[in-house]
């Protein structure tokens, strides 16, 4: 039952149609088999010495029925095929979208616990495995079981001794397979994990190819990738080597039933307790039953392997999504009330209390690692704090519906991600129903229009994956255009102008000034001169607020801000000597 839950990703009801039609098609397939037995019966009667002769009319009728029946079989087969494949592909197509949606609703904390490669592998490979389980293995398994089960009960009625001899080893074979369940689960899980890890390392290798080249980590020297592939080879070989004997033993036991039945039949025949016709009939049935039974046993083992892949997806689907149902206020003060937060065990922000006033510009400054980005992420509810409250307009963000909150927040990060799409559509992410005119207006405000018009296809130019065909400053301005288009009343800005050349810096700064006009702005400032006019500057040190106030006040305090300011003033005066 667990395996069925896993393979259907918790929707066992989706198996109703595929299972129903497969059963039907298997039952339909029994009729020709019965007719063949009847044909053998007629032929036997002709030669049993009673002198009744060959009943050719009856044989022709059977032949006629068999030919006509082909059509029924074809229809039943088609229906079963259709429902199995349709069910499986629909389940994985819907499931993949459902999982992608679920990932979006997970708190970032639980999302980051998974390697991105492992998530991609779940969405692609694990679903494919579950899909194959439903489309191929489940029908084959059922088909292979229906005939033997019916045969057993049918033959019991004909001759129970032969029937028992035929199937006596089957419970043992099943016992061997079920006895190996735990070991199979453990080996399969390890093999799947090794496969996922190899995929992740390969992705890392390809994405980091520039660094790998630069540090000469190519080929044999990139041990992480090599090790991942070696682990996968080991895990796959262990799975095959350790599971193989169990499957082989169970197949041998099942096949032993045929030998046992022949021995028993010969004994009964000699003793005059069994007719030759019955013996032949058992032989015919045996030939039709043992092959599907052995494939059922192999299928059963594979089906369990596939169900582990489904189980991985199911576990991820069960991770709790971010809570909160209330509609978010559009605007208001953002208040931190005794907030403590850590990504794992280690606390990063300690007992932070502050108010970011509606319509004001607040700058976060502090040494690297002091917690600026973390504090900003809490403002957008990327995470919920472990202690205390983050509130928007007096409402605890935990109670707000995450998507509704996000509608009122624009974010501009340092590392801009551009999708593999046109420039126009990349800006449109800010507002999905924006017209071309609105997009152009936002691009003009973000100082993007001129460089876009210089591109070969203008706004329809494709941006490479990750936006690698644009310069850093251009990508920054595109992301600002997105944020301008969104027109959200709250803007979170991770200032990145420090890494830009002077010309780009001026353009980006102009774009930022347009974006933040009249909004509640929280900016992480790396260069203090850009935030001299901020309404409030919050100075963080080791996850605590060291001081806060306006630029002049903080300078007068002679504290950490004064120290950071003095260091920056000095470095601005530095010149490179050749
Ligand atoms: N996703 C994460 N998982 C675990 N620890 C993290 C994560 N993000 C940040 N940290 C840790 O939290 C601490 C604060 O990081 P944060 O990025 O908030 O600092 P910051 O002041 O913005 O630094 P910088 O100026 O260098 O960007 C650091 O010790 C960092 O290693």
Automatic annotation (TrEMBL):
Its main location: membrane. This is ABC transporter ATP-binding protein. It is found in: Cell membrane. Keywords: ATP-binding, Membrane, Nucleotide-binding, Transmembrane, Transmembrane helix. InterPro entries: AAA+_ATPase, ABC1_TM_dom, ABC1_TM_sf, ABC_transporter-like_ATP-bd, ABC_transporter-like_CS, P-loop_NTPase, Type_1_exporter. It is a multi-pass membrane protein. The chain crosses the membrane at residues 21-47, 59-76, 141-158, 164-185, 242-268, 274-290. PANTHER family: ABC TRANSPORTER, ATP-BINDING TRANSMEMBRANE PROTEIN, ATP-BINDING CASSETTE SUB-FAMILY B. GO terms for molecular function: ATP binding. Residues 334-567 form the ABC transporter domain. Residues 22-303 form the ABC transmembrane type-1 domain.
